[in-house]
Amino acid sequence: MTILSQARHRILLSTAFAGLLAAILPASAQQSGQRVTITGEISDSWCTISGLMFAKGTAHHQCAVWCALGGIPVAIRDAGGNLYLILKIGDDEDSAGNPRVAKLATHDVTVDGELLERDGVKYLLVDRIADDKGVITMTHEEHGIQPFGN
Amino acid sequence: MRGGVNALIVAAGLAAGPAVSAEPWNIPHEKQAILKGRVVDALCQLKGSCKPDCGGGKRQLGLVLADGTFRLVAKSNIDFAGAASDLAGYCGREIEADGLLIENPAVTLFFVQRIRQNPGQDWIAAERFKTDWETRNGKAEEWWRADPEANRIIAEDGPFGIKGLQPKPKP
Predict the structure, then answer these.
(1) Mean pLDDT value across residues A65-76
(2) What domains are there in chain B, each with its CATH number?
């Protein structure tokens, strides 16, 4: 095989591989995100935006566990009220009903990852949890156990 | 003017045919809507990390509308439950989803109440989570209080998420 034919062979293989990938992946995929470090409380998006209950700290922990295990998208809410929906943590790409994520409910964490923004939603692909302070926002004295009181 | 609005609604992937009948939940920024779009896995759609079955109910799913808008479907018609169980069976297919579009300044999400594949079909209540849960765990009036995994976590960490911190006994 000549150098020229080897090069042509490589080009053909590359083209075929690119075509195969294009067929497999959705057209809008490959979004490039922004590297970020986010600090905030892990909470479920339903309770946070529904306004039907007090959705912070110790008072909301049990409810946040239920929602996370029920498959409600889990988010980090930062001090500015921004919500970052978590789609993966490390190699774990299960974002619906994942017990590992439920165990983090209402924890205050700092995470490093990739931020993707699309149609009014901030999505977060967490590379690592840099810090986990556990549950530190004490709200149960004032609000009891949300939403039913037990 | 009205025709123009209808055209805009259809162009945005909101089906204009049947009357919207989602039950209002009185959530701030909610709007009744029927979304028409293709069921996709969020991580696949956004980042190209795909699984053939959209994750089989273990990933967050959403709809890609005709204009390319991606709407994450965050909640089903079951208390404390998301919609992955309801949508996973339609992975890659077009559906209509009747529910509430929540355009909160912090996040835009869709809460689905019922689903169908085309206008000729009956609507199916978005309550698959409970069916699947009861298949695994048996009947329960409140799945969340009977869930073995939830009870394990709450037993380990307490209802407030802090080991040893318990509610005060009621007088």
Answers:
(1) 98
(2) 17-125 (2.40.50)
Per-domain boundaries in chain A: 1-29, 31-143
Question: Which chain B residues have a beta carbon less than 8 Å from that of A126?
Answer: none
- List the structure tokens of A130: 């840099």
Q: Backbone dihedral region of A141: left (phi > 0), alpha (psi from -120 to 50 degrees) or beta?
A: alpha
pLDDT band at B20 (very low <50, low <70, confident <90, very high): low
Residue A122, strand partner residues: A84, A117
- The Cα–Cα gap between A136 and B145 comes to 24
- Chain mean position to CA B166: 33
Q: What is the CATH number of domain A31-143?
A: 2.40.50
Report CA-CA distances (Å) from B159 to A54, A95, B141, B154, B167: 15, 23, 20, 5, 8
Q: What is the pLDDT of residues B22-33, one digit of tens each?
A: 999 999 999 999
Instruction: Please state the pTM of the whole predicted model.
Output: 0.86
Angstrom CA distances, A86 to A1, A83, B35, B36, B121, stand at: 50, 9, 23, 25, 34
| DSSP single-letter state for residue B11 | H
The band of A3, judged by pLDDT with boundaries at 50, 70 and 90, is very low
**B40 vs A contacts (CB less than 8 Å):** 26
Residues of chain A neighbouring B167 (CB-CB closer than 8 A): 140, 144-145, 150
Nearest to B72 by CA among B58, B87, B51: B87
Q: Is the pLDDT of residue A16 over 70?
A: no
Banded model confidence at residue B122, pLDDT cuts 50, 70, 90: very high
Chain A CB within 8 Å of residue B13 CB: no
**Interface test mutation site (partner A, options B27, B109, B142, max chain A beta carbons within 10 A):** B109
Of the candidates A29, A94, A105, the beta carbon closest to that of B45 is on A29
